[in-house]
Amino acid sequence: MFTRKQRLAPEREGIWGEAGELGVSALLTVENLTIGFGDAAPVVDDVNFSVQPGETLALVGESGSGKTLSCRAALRILPEMAQVRSGRVLFPGRGDGALINLMDVSERHMCRIRGERISMIFQEPMRSLSPLHRIGNQVTEVLRLHKNIDRAEQRKRVLAMFERVGFKDPDRVYDSYPFELSGGMRQRAMIAMAMVGKPELLIADEPTTALDVTTQAQVLGLIKDLQKDFGMAVVLVTHDLGVVANMADSVVVMNRGRVVESGPAPLILNDPRHGYTRDLMAAAPEIPATPMDKDKESDRDYILEMRNVSKTFTLKGSSPWKPRTVVHAVRGIEFGVERGKTLAVVGESGSGKTTCARMALAAERADPGAEILFRAQTGGETVDLQKLDNADRLAFQRKAQMVFQDPYSTLNPRMRVKDALTEPMEIHGIGTNADRTARAVEMLRWVGLSENMLTRYPHAFSGGQRQRLSIARALMLGPTFLVCDEPTSALDVSVQEQVLQLLEEIRDRLNLSYLFISHDLAVVARIADEVAVMRAGLVVEQGPPDQLFYNPQHPYTKALIAAQPEPDINRPINLRIVAQGAGEPSSWPEAFRFDGLDTPPLTVTGPGHKVRRYA
Fold first, then answer.
1. Which listed residue, 7, 161, 528, 541, has the most CB atoms within 10 A of its CB?
2. Which CATH number does 25-117+199-281 carry?
């Protein structure tokens, strides 16, 4: 697609690595591809791109831009109603290497190409893996279909690939079901499935969207290492220009089904020419380069305080004779949410963030000895959420609501928008039907949607619009306290920016207080007044953003900052820092190291800044 002189970027540390020598002929070429549904306008319109052997090509754009459909066309796995109206997808055949058009070959021939010569990693591993079959059996299927080897050799190769993708206990993973693995582990299993056949081309469709930033950094590094080992080409489908900066050699930017800009990654990222590309760059969340100016207050007015909060779960053994397992989900939490401000709780999956959120909403009871105090008004009555009866809990829930992570599953697909919005008022017996409808119209306007959307069903809306509907529903009862659980993690960067701006405007207009759950420090830097970093149920560092981001002390906080991908090829992800901070606590530097339940104290190191370390 580009000459070697055009394509190569300066050598740098991190995931990027050096580019290998490229062949003259492209490995995959998409020419004049147009795809549509029914009589509607095309959703992929005259798209052209190519990828060289050993190269990483990034297809960039928002949801609905046609990225995934263009890649699925290459594998002939388009939805049933999709029509390829024109175009060719060229790929070298076996033997003489003569180019063949994948649109014209037989289905039997395509079955030989899929999985063996071209593999694909899908966006959501839980939906891509069969819940009824063990991981090992699913990965082995690739070898069973495409390689003439016996079962013992198949298992040997799969276990070797599991070890290569970073599984510490390959045999256990081989015999596990998908639901027994974390999101990061499932994505590694998908990578193993795609790579075990040693394909010439890997198509990775948003392979890190649902992952924590530390896991994302490790998965990106793994894909880059495997690419180098196997010499394969990669087509990376993403909306995140930070990921592009760390992975891509060349970039194709798509908007509304058309290619709007393409070229070498350094040129696109350093000097974008098209307005849409510049908008994507501007919307990418980043940790600010200079400290933020935050008000310092000596007397804090807390709407919610959590004191000595722990939560322990006891899980049954895998069989009647196996002992029960005690899980310390949250340990000794001490923080508060100031009125009219935002406390962000940051950490990877399993760190205890959502458990804290559930306890803050009285949806989960903490262990004995904890205090969770709520004050609806300044100087008003203090309510201990641990001691609420049913009537008090119902009254509290009018003042505290939640915005959930996934806008696709938050709203009932069988309820019209009007019914979904008015349901909370019906449950609490508030107002007449006319009052509820008027309130729904008002809330739609507040979140930037129109009244005529009341009669539609959720499937008629985009992801960003659904999240706006979720926010509107949370505001129907007039709450003073909102828990936002990863409200932007499933959204494109430009939509994410719009939702964050909306949350800020609503907070300031209504004097709301937010407990904001996230794994993304760049998002937190945008909205938070105070940050608590959690790992394995513990707060390991806490303080105002200008302390945490510019003077991080704990190795895990440093890992979160280092793992944040930025749209700048001169600032790659440093996997060494990520690996150290995201590793086991027993491997941390001595001042922070611990094993089991014997942990260092949360020590004050500066104004409002606390770090879990030994003096």
1. 541
2. 3.40.50.300
